[in-house]
Fold:
Amino acid sequence: MVQRSRRGQSTLEYVILVTAVIVVIITFLMGKESFFQKTLNNSLNSVSQEMTSMSGRFSDVFDPVVDQQQNP
Structure:
């Protein structure tokens, strides 16, 4: 049975991986008008709005300053 060296395959896998990472980085660096940048901004804005909304809900339930003033 012939044994093949996996060294060449591993090198090729690393080249493909590094190339993919470089492509992603270049895509993000293309500016604010790129599809990926818009998608990232929309996602971050959505998460920020949800966090603000949830913090408003929690502050209505428990406000340590008001509770401390009412129960000294």
Notes: Helices lie at 7-28, 35-61, 64-70.
